Amino acid sequence: MLQEIRDKSQGWIAKTIIGVIVLLLALTGFEAIFRAVSNDGEVASVNGEGIATAEFNDTYQQQRYILSANGQFDGTPEAVKELKKLVTDNLINYRILVQAATNAGFSYLPEAYIKQAIESNPLYQTNGQFDYSLFEQEIRNYGYGSDKQFVRDQLDRNLLSQLQSGIVDANFVTNDRASYLAKLLEQTRDFSYKELDANKVTNISDEEIATWYEDHKNTLKTPEQVVLEYIELDRNNFLEQTTVSDKELSDLYAKKVVELDKTAVRHRIAHILIPITANQSAEQAKTKIDTIENELKQGKDFATVAKEESQDTGTADKGGDLGFVTTDDLPDPEAFAPVLTTLTKVGDISEPVRSRFGWHIIKLTDIQKATIPSFDSLREQLASELKQQKAYEAYLAEQRKLDSAAYENYDNLAQVAKDFNLTLKETKPFGRETGYDVITSNDKVIKAAFSESLLKNEENSGIIEVTPNTSIIVHVKEHLQPSNMTLEQATPDIKVALQKEKATSEGEQLVADVKTGKIAVNDTWKAFKSVKQPLQLSAEEFQKLSLSPEILESLFAMPKPTGDKPSVYGITLKNGNYAVIALSKVNEFTGSLSDGDKLQYQTLADNDSANKLWEEYRQYLKDNAEIKYFDSED
After folding, report:
1. Which end of the chain has the lower number of beta carbons within 10 A, N or C?
2. Residue 479: CA count within 13 A, CB half-sphere
3. Bridge pairing between strands 470-480 and 353-354
């Protein structure tokens, strides 16, 4: 249960949305899901609405392609059958949710809204203007076939988000449930553990190795490998060729002065907060903030009122002071920034404003302007910035040319290298998980190298960025298929496997001996007192513990010890070692929680309950849907 709560506390909205279409999105890069298709046969129907065979085939091929590229699909009849069923089921689940959203009266955002959001995104801009080439390159990196597919994906995501919000917003959790959760998560545990190092297992004979080889030789294969030839584009080469003029420097300085004049202003603000919580509705919070506003209008001192009325425990004692802030570090920029522009003089007080925290009243207490540096003091910095910008633009332009040339000469990378005066380089053989440098270990390179278009169609890849300053185009020169390992080739791997097996066997025996009292926990074990749960540990505290996450998570999944006997559990760690954990005591939480902690646990309980409600709703929709499967060709 605790692990489930920990998982769900990591942003439940994101996780549950992903859960809706997890494999469809993760495996297809969204492309095949939202593609318009003709109704040329159906693989299934949901409440009378068919899922076209063409849609299924596109999604299946995309998923098969990406799974194969990542070494997760072996092409066996069993794997094909399983993947086809998975694709069908996920298309059905997705169609059920879309139908539920439209039936509930939710509607799509206007496409213009999404397009405006895209064009205003700094990621897709050059010199403050929307750059379609940057946008196109970015969405293709994420598997979108076109800008229309990307826009469609955003619209569908928003539609499903509306449905989910409509369901989970009706959720509520009692105070008792939140208190129980707090008590559960605030407990600590005393324990000891002993780790058996698999690498120290040396009693492995040649006969054992030979026997293991005979028992497993059909599964002992050399890895599938490729040898790539590639050409490389280096951004630094463009930087060396770039020059800037005095006029360009002075123009940039003038622009900086305008920007600094706007952004260098820092405002010091104070606020009074009445939060919206499980015990305080939005209406109640608004009534309180309106009463406070009337008190301030009657001349009552803001700092005094903040100390008496504000429910922000971090700032109330300081008269609500939030210090000097810029737009970027406001508590809730979307809510606070527009209000801040209306406070022009020190002493100005806002009307009540709603944020994601609750209701606020904000006061401007000071304004601070920064000194504008001189042109000479910034000259070197400006020159560097201009060169970087111009070099990057030249680099991107050359990328586009190179990508186009590689596409036109799809089977001849040597000709592309010659045309662009680039050196045709070559890698050593490497597999899906055995890269040896920054290129062969790059996920995008591996994905491209083992893709169908490069392996079977013998095409060039597109531009692949391997570092912020380096991009390459690759071509498969040689494809080395897996083959049966000889005993000599397999011996190192067999030794590791036998070491793990023997460490596990020894560890399991130790667990049994401790449980029966044959062996007692002693000072050779590592002992820990009052260890907090993973969710409660800061990064610094976790580092000081020097414990693997596997041990810590197992510890808090173990039952309480009974009597004088510890609760004992064994686990094989990711490094192959075996850990035996002896839980000696569970320390129940008996202290009191601050208001902030109570709010945190209330939120955590709300999120956990909302997750369950959403999952139950999805299952209810599926249980009550009329689903028909039709025969399809393999």
Report:
1. C
2. 14
3. unpaired
